[in-house]
Design goal:
By secondary structure, the protein is of the alpha+beta class. The chain folds into four domains: 2-67; 149-240, PAS domain (Beta-Lactamase, 2-Layer Sandwich); 246-412, Beta-Lactamase, CATH 3.30.450; 432-597, Orthogonal Bundle (Hypothetical protein af1432), CATH 1.10.3210. It is 56% helix and 13% strand. The protein contains 18 helices and eleven strands. It has helices at 2-28, 35-67, 77-148, 167-171, 190-198, 242-269, 273-287, 328-335, 352-359, 389-431, 440-454, 459-471, 492-501, 508-515, 536-552, 560-568, 577-587, 593-597, and strands at 152-157, 162-165, 201-207, 216-226, 229-238, 292-298, 303-310, 321-323, 339-341, 363-370, 375-383. Strand 6 and strand 7 form a beta hairpin. The longest helix is centred in the first third of the chain and has 72 residues, at 77-148. The radius of gyration is 63 Å and the shape is elongated. It starts with a helix and ends with a helix. Residues 68-74 and 481-488 have low confidence and may be disordered.
């Protein structure tokens, strides 16, 4: 402030000097200007201006040098205000910098969030696209499925406006008729229509204004929600007998499956052609309530011969043997073709026997039993009901199962036949040195089989007894004697025979039958302390062996009846009385099998 006052004083003095000079000039020169006076005035003005300028410049330099100096002591209030203002500005600047730093960090955070939101947005867009594709697929799938179903199906919005109807629905509409609202085709009021928005119906009777073939249809309705609000309503309807038909179809399929399962069990459990076919046919006829049915196989004379017969009536059974040519049965067999004959018009050619059955009300089906290479037989069925395509699946399944059974049994029979022939050839070697003994083992085996069959033993046991009969004297291959009845130990060749074949894999029943076939029924000649009774295979072989002995040795008895009487004299001592009765029953039959053995 002092320097400012100095400048002001100098400026005042300078002005006074100029003023006084001007006045003096004017006075001195008598109010007129001349050149000297003008120059002096100008020089004085320039000198004063120069001095004033210098003073001002020095003050400015001094001020600039001292204002920014650290810890400078201000001498007046203005300087303090400047200093305070400077400090305030610097503090504000720092605060601004801090704010800028915080804002930058917030900006970075927002950029990261923006990138994450962009990723989420992209993912949502992909999901929305996928959902839209699934929605389109679901719509097409629903349309296709709804159009395949026999029920009427339609969809409305919450106000009853029609959005979709399927083909079954369209087929019942009058040609060219269009429907837009539920009330266009249903006999309902607006109040009744509102009920569909309030609940689902599991069962409801629809009454249509226009319908072909049905007065009313049963059905249901299902509401479809969106944001807890009814968006659509799905309706379905079916004829009142639809469920009944479905139940009938289910029962029929269940029955067919049961038939097939039962046949499968029979095939697994049986190993003979006659037994398997008969049991299977009985099941088929019973479960299907068939009038009559047969299974025939081709014999050596090119005839289809009955091997199994069943049904509740034999009225329509043709003769036991039918020629494979010039008959519908033979045609089905030769062509491996299933044939249904429900009426005379279905006949392929003139066949009086079949025509007679059809004329009397019978319906006939011929089902070949064949694989892709060979036809094994033919099954003929006579029913009171017409055959149709629904029967086709069941008959095909039956045919396949029976064909498998036939293949298995025929293969088994072939292997068994070859096996028995091999054994017969083997035992023939034990008989080759004796003229009267030739064929003895085979005859004993046949007699054993006849007794076993009369006892109604199963096939496996019959085959085992037959095998034991064939091998009962195999031990004689090691003997030098013509017959063991002259030996002191009659059981010698029996024990040797058992040891010879016990490693073959035959059952213990067969081995016991071979070893003890010379043992007496009452064990009076028993030498085995562990034996409490004669094995029953051995009982049968003993009777068959001694019957053949009586009929073919030098002791030879003329008739079988006489030979049986001779055996009965030792009933329940040497021989089993029960088996002797069985033998007697066989011999009393006309044309009995034992008689054929000796022809």
């Amino acid at each position: 402030m002092e320097r400012k006052q100095n400048i002001m004083i100098l400026s005042l003095l300078y002005g006074l000097v100029v003023l006084s000079t001007s006045i003096a000039q004017l006075t001195f020169f008598d109010l007129s200007y001349n050149t000297r006076g003008l120059l002096v005035s100008v020089g004085i003005i320039i000198l004063g201006a120069t001095g004033m300028t210098y003073a001002i410049k020095r003050e400015i330099i001094h001020f600039n040098k001292n204002v920014g100096i650290k810890n400078m002591l201000f001498r007046d209030k203005d300087r303090q205000k400047v200093q305070m203002r400077f400090e305030n500005l610097r503090n504000e600047q720092e605060e601004k910098m801090l704010q800028i730093t915080d804002q930058k960090e917030e900006l970075l955070t927002l950029e990261v969030q923006l990138k994450n939101m962009q990723k989420v947005s992209s993912s949502i867009e992909a999901e929305v696209k996928s959902l839209n594709e699934k929605k389109e697929y679901s719509i097409h799938f629903f349309d296709a499925l709804a159009n395949l179903l026999p029920q009427r199906i339609w969809i409305t919005d919450a106000h009853g406006q029609i959005l979709f109807i399927n083909k079954a629905f369209k087929s019942n509409l009058s040609k060219g008729k269009k429907i837009n609202n539920l009330m266009d085709f249903l006999e309902i009021s607006e109040n009744q229509m509102d009920i569909f928005n309030k609940r689902n119906f599991g069962s409801i009777l629809y009454r249509f204004k226009e319908d072909s073939g049905n007065v009313a249809l049963e059905g249901k309705s299902i509401r479809i929600f969106e944001n807890e609000t009814v968006k659509y309503i799905l309706y379905t309807s079916k004829s009142t007998d639809f469920e009944k038909k479905m139940n009938q179809n289910y029962l029929r399929k269940s029955r067919d499956l049961h038939v097939i399962n039962e046949i499968g069990k029979i095939i697994i459990g049986r190993s003979t052609i006659s037994g398997t076919l008969q049991e299977a046919l009985d099941k088929i006829a019973f479960l299907n309530n068939l009038n009559s049915t047969t299974i025939r196989l081709l014999n050596n004379n090119n005839e289809l011969e009955i091997k199994a017969l069943s049904g509740y009536s034999k009225q329509f059974i043709l003769k036991s043997k039918v020629e494979a040519e010039l008959s519908h049965m033979g045609y089905a067999y030769n062509e491996n073709r299933m044939i249904f004959i429900n009426k005379p018009e279905d006949l392929l050619f003139n066949d009086p026997d079949v025509e007679n059955v059809v004329r009397k009300g019978g319906k006939i089906a011929y089902i070949p039993l064949a694989n892709y290479k060979k036809t094994f037989g033919i099954m003929s069925i006579v029913s009171d009901n017409e055959f149709n395509t629904e029967n086709l699946t069941l008959f095909e399944a039956i045919s396949i199962n029976l064909t498998i059974a036939l293949e298995k049994i025929l293969l088994y029979d072939q292997l068994k036949s070859n096996y028995f022939k091999t054994v017969e050839a083997f035992v023939t070697a034990s008989e080759i040195n004796s003229e009267w003994f030739s064929g003895h083992s085979r005859r004993v085996a046949e007699i054993c089989r006849a007794i076993a069959e009369k006892l109604y033993l199963n096939e496996h046991e019959v085959d085992e007894i037959y095998m034991a009969g064939l091998l009962h004297d195999v031990g004689k291959l090691s003997s030098d004697h013509e017959d063991d009845y002259n030996n002191e130990d009659i059981h010698h060749h029996s024990r040797i025979g058992r040891r010879m074949i016990e490693k073959v894999g035959l059952s213990s029943d067969v081995l016991d039958g071979i070893e003890y076939h010379h043992l007496d029924y009452d064990l009076s000649n028993n030498t085995d302390p562990d034996l409490s009774e004669q094995p029953y295979y051995a009982q049968i072989i003993r009777i068959a062996n001694d019957l053949d002995w009586l009929l073919n040795t030098e002791i030879k008895i003329d008739t079988m009846e006489s030979a049986l009487d001779s055996l009965k004299e030792k009933s329940n001592t040497t021989y089993s009385g029960q088996f002797l009765k069985i033998l007697g029953a066989i011999l009393n039959e006309t044309g009995n099998i034992i008689q054929s053995v000796y022809q």
